[in-house]
Amino acid sequence: MRLKARLAAPLILAALPAFAQAQDATGPKSPCGGDFGAWVEGVKAEAAAMGHASDTVNAFFSGVRPDQAVLQADRAQGVFQRDFVDFSRRLISENRIANGRANAGKYGATFDRIEAEYGVPRGVLLAFWAFETDYGAVQGDFNTVNALATLAHDCRRPELFRPQLLAAVELYAQGGINPASTTGAWAGEIGQVQMLPRDIIENGMDGDGDGRVDLKGSARDALLSGGKMLSHLGWRANEPWLQEITVPESMDWSQTGLDTEKTVSEWQALGVAGRNGNLGPAGLPASVLLPMGKDGPAFLAYPNFRVYFEWNQSLVYVTTAAYFANRLNGAPVYDAGNAASGLSGEQMVRLQEKLQARGHDAGGADGILGEMTRQAVQAEQQRLGLPADAWPTPALLEAL
Fold first, then answer.
1. Among candidate residues 99, 74, 78, the one with its CA nearest the CA of residue 87
2. Per-residue pLDDT tens for 220-229?
3. Which residues contact 69 (CB under 8 A, 6 or more apart)?
């Protein structure tokens, strides 16, 4: 869970769980690279120093090997270069909506328990369940230990994956995984809502009462565990997360974006209104989110929306997941508007390079329109006297 980019059989395979990404922002790099066998011996020594018996450690690592297919999947993130309308239309289908509503009924008692204990609405979990594994149908066939070891050995993000590999040793010691046979996503996630080993240790729940946590075979276990994790990540009960809105043409576009918050009543005073139904409580803080600029879809993002980034850090993914939760709860299709053409992946890289050359931190030149790139775009739009709606266009690229 939270390591996504998974668009295989309609899913998305791996954008990195946000909770985990937070770990790689600070601190020294974990040991990585070099001879794989020698590197494994170092991890084994660290696991033993943590208190694991040598027999346990040796058995866990006995068959470990690097998997080149994992590295290939890790480098293939082009799906996140799509804009919100394209991305959401690819992930959300009538069949997926129908299956979601059927599962809401089938597991109604479990969702009732999750809502009572953790305050997480069923639509929210259903959306993640759908996008992660198509309601359990496509859970991934990568050997979990090999995947974690490969990514921990690779020097791109070892500070994320080495702790997860060590957590997998702990999970093995508890009887939670089998190093030889446990499979899942290429990034080491396991089960129907795709949870990393540390998540499973901290949030794994027995939802069907059989005395064990089975996130692969038991939807009830997976859903209850996912609800507990969202709660621990900061989900606020009985509050909205994302709502479609209408925005007046007179809006100061520089006030839009997730880095600007106002109360609902303040947004209402500026002419923001719910497209379908009333906005949230007047004193609730919120941000106006325009994923494709002032002429595209418009949403009001509430505090719970930020919890989505603890699951996945891709803006287009979390916006789609949050919107899909609304659809599963009965909301209509959003108004796609008439947004100006965006940039290709190659053009986005060029834009990010230009933004960074001007002193902005665009989060790297990866061709993906993330929040840091959007903030830099907005600043340059203001400087150039353009509508500062954070949507990069070919005209902006040319102007820079």
1. 78
2. 999 999 999 9
3. 142, 186
> Is 196 a member of any domain?
no
Residue 393: other Cβ atoms inside 10 A: 20
Residue-range definition of the domain harbouring residue 321: 242-328
Count structural domains, the chain. 2
Q: Measured between alpha carbons, how far is 311 from 3 in angstroms, rounded to an integer?
A: 7
Is residue 103 assigned to a domain? no
Residue 163 lies in a domain: no
With the C-alpha atoms ordered 317, 322, 328, 333, is the resulting torsion angle positive or negative? negative
CA dist 243 and 392 (Å) reads 23
Q: Are residues 317 and 376 in the same domain?
A: no
Q: What angle do CA 238, 114, 317 make, to 5 degrees?
A: 75
Residue 47: pLDDT band with limits 50, 70, 90: very high
pTM over 0.85: yes
State residue 77's pLDDT score: 63
**Interval 106-120: pLDDT, tens:** 999 999 999 999 999
- Whether 370 is covered by a domain: the verdict is yes
Distance CA 212, CA 231 (A): 21
CB 223 within 8 A of CB 214: no
